[in-house]
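3.2 Worked example (two chains)
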Amino acid sequence: MKEHVKKFDYEEIRSSFSFECPDDFNFAFDVLAKKALEVDKVALISIDRNGNHVKDVSYAELDRVSSRFANALLRLGVAKTDNVLVVLPRIPEWYHVLFGCAKMGAVAMPGTNLLTANDIEYRINSAGAKVVVVSEVHAGFVEAIKKNCPTLEHLILVRGIRAGWHSFDAICSQSSGHIDRSMVPPTSSKDLILIYFTSGSTAMPKMVGRDHAYSLSHSITKSYWQDLREDDVHWTLTDTGWAKAAWGLLYPQLLASCTIVLYDGEGFDLETHLRIIKQYRVTTFCAPPTIYRLMAQADLSGADFSSLRHCFGAGEPLNPEAMRAWKKATTCDIYDGYGQTETINIVANFPGMEIRPGSMGKPCPGLIVDIIDDEGNILANGEIGHIGIKITDPYPPGLFTGYYLDDAKTAEVFRNGWYYSGDTATRDSDGYIWFVGRSDDVISSSGYRISPFEVESALIEHLAVAESAVVAKPDPVRGGIVKAYIVLASGYEASNELVDDIQNFVKQHSAPYKYPREIEFVGALPKTISGKIRRVELRESAAKV
């Protein structure tokens, strides 16, 4: 029988919580290497893109091969603080590279597998990267732009042989599987371990440096929102290039000594996903709202979810309809959470809390998160404002300290004693936080401030709506009106009658002033490479009509 999630006393945990990170903390040595000696179990279940089992990787093997790669980098002359661009699919080598870099002090820069040659060039030159580690998929892209990248010295190819490249397997086989911590430059908890690039939905991607303390701060993510345990088999659906991978494929899971499902599939195949949950007895599961919505629309009556005990989502707020459908099929609630590349999980629904569908939950232990105005004043319940993190002493766990090589952008987000997330929300009388949108996304119409997410949540409840995005369209009378771009569900066709029906439906399921005064049916919504809706593009389109 499924074990229920642990019940937490939220207020007690908040009041008693403390976080300390040793000055010389290094995750690869202080967690992974120790786990390799203490835990005799599988760390990774590697599954190929066809859904076939490839291999199991133990904690000991993960430690040993990452040491080989660290020694290989040292032999190549790579030094502490050198930046290494890593573009790899969901395969064990991704872990070997990241932890190998951490052991010898280089800084890994994960990149999504959707990067183009121009994207790769931008990242190498922005960070002054010295090394690239890619698979065959991206090797040609690197060769095409190498001449434009003066800092790039070493090309390392995973699972292949190519002229002018170091073979990952070859350089690792020539290196020792042991690395003496005392013989490499010491790392501080404040030294960088990763550089992530933001998804760039409104501007060019920014570089977010994450230090070694960041990896340990995910103990908060592990213990509360995710409620991970040593006997868990965990599966998070995410690309290795996003910070979500650090949340769902890396630090919390290894801190908990659980087993990670590493599925290298492309896109979403319902049959394969259901089979993996059943075959590998997945206990904890995290997916983006899009996947939960797709699953909610499918027939799940024959699926085996008996192993699942705890499910959670992040990336965008979850619609109540998807939450209800998932609960009906699996008996599991979906615990929504919120954070950014610049943070850890900072707001979440915790086991034992009442879940209020549509709310991200409450602030995580160790962090003061609130709704503030432009001057840093805390707003009253129900008012729309910025989601901010209070700068405290000691420093908020998991909060970055600034954008890499960009003091101007750093100054924009750190002001008035707060970190400004760039997102807006409201807080209810019980302390639950409700997402509104990016600061630029809030719609002002006839004196009302309207959350796009609220309107989208109502729209998705209509049977004809498969997907939607809501933006402001300039209006000479109201200042702006709500415009909805809608992708229709299968079997429905656009018509004036359907527009009227959807509008009336929204009026009945939300405050009437929020309904979309204009609806445009589209074949697909524009999205970033991380899958987020490019509202800026839709706003520009709406303004032209």
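3.2.1 Second chain
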Amino acid sequence: MEPVTEYGPSVPSCDDLHASKYRLPNESFDECMARISLHMSDNEEHFNELKSILLNMRFMPAGRIQSAMGSPRDVTAYNCFVSGTIEDSMHSIMERATQAAETMRRGGGIGYDFSNIRPSGDRIVSLDSSASGPVSFMHIYDAICRTIVSAGHRRGAMMGVLRVDHPDIEEFIRAKRNSTDLTNFNISIGVTDKFMNAVVNKKDFELEFEGKVYKYIDASALWDEIMRANWDWAEPGVLFIDRINEENPLYYCETIEATNPCGEQPLPAFGACLLGSFNLVKYVNIQRFGSNIKYRFDFHQFEQDIPVVVNAMDNVIDRTNYPLPEQKREAHMKRRMGLGITGLGNALTLMEMKYGEPNTLKFIRKLMRTLTHEAYHASSDRAVMHGSFPLFNADKYIEGKFIARFPDALKEKIKRQGMRNSHLISIAPTGTISFCADNISSGLEPVFLNELNRTVNTEFGPVNVLLKDYVYENFKMMGETTEDLSTDSHLDTQIACQPYVDSAISKTINVGNNVSFTEFKDIYTKAWKGKLKGVTTFRLAGKRYGILNKVESSEKEGTACYFDPDTGQKECA
């Protein structure tokens, strides 16, 4: 890219949103980045390096960081948390609800695992009554979130998880089959390898609680019901919970049962996610060959920026507020962060690469390998000066399945120097910060459309904004859009990234109208066989209205539509 002369978003609606969400009153973009840099840096040299990166939008801290660091607001720099364990007692259920309210009041989203709550209809001997089950209590949490949001300015975000072997799993699958129930929740199923093997081998599967088998169910039939819910409503998402725990660098000292609301951070009880993303578009530089212009990725600049960002993000852990003392203790014991990427779709368009093709996947693997290895090098170097995270165990850490794939030299360095941070890599959806960066493509996603209507939540309520894609607007280049791509292109891109991600990936596989239900189910099976930690789909012909929509769409918001792949007919209520 040509040298930047003016900093910040150039599109008025993008700049307005950034100002309304992240800046202090009358604060310019430059002043905002300076404020953030000052409160994230080690010294003057680090401050100047970080400020340059932020001003040029090569790295974009998550919105909570931008809003909180150096701000007089009593908010946290952490985007999201996972609740403490919800035990099967009214005291625990309500205590966690109270803690959730405090967390959301300070600006944090929250995820829950409801699997420890006994199934509906189960006998409560002490009260001579019957249990109402996990889904009933989810409505209490949903109401709390709705109330907190009504008193503030940030849309609430929650994730509800239930294990696939819980006796109430069928009720959970159906919990969001309309547009009015549990609207503040994303929901996901903790799918085990045992269940997937039962599906593949067409076996029965036990639904159990605390060692008691409640019934046997046809695994394939249950899987079909999960798939049908996703086909129509895009939920519940699927978390491959065994793989999450097997690949966890802290396999030796924690068990993960839930994720943050978007799924990119599997977290233990009271865990928190500290997020930020490298804007890949800003690393694509012009190279002139005579009269020809080519765009190439600047790996040298990328490698230089990574340690600057790792050191800055590590400082946030010590310098932010925490809604709960349990969250602070958990964060300080492990010091995890989640660095990711955004703008991939736009960067590929500039470099004339096709989304999902073999040469593109090769580039993505190199990109992610660079990010991960350089981040781990930087964290190990920082441990020399500031010490390792308290739960670091050198022998166990480097023996974990994730770290075992590292080059021998890096593993030896980690064993010798330690690690400042337990986790470093996470790919978030980055919808808002990508929009604020002049509407670049978000996260791992391809360009949605070259022109679209986006619903933007402002202090005055939701507003529909007509937008052009960043590359289409600035370079007059039309790359591939979601509609042009196969589901395999989406899936292969996510699979290419996963070996280099110690947390998880939030990505939506957009499904076109030409995909049959059988092909749709294959996406999830391929995801499991491809060793993904989770998968989410969105079918444009489904019954849920998306935040991004075609300019020419004539369907009304909230319209329920069904596309029959066998007849080719689309019906809308």
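3.3 Remarks
Confidence is low (pLDDT under 50) at residues 551-573.
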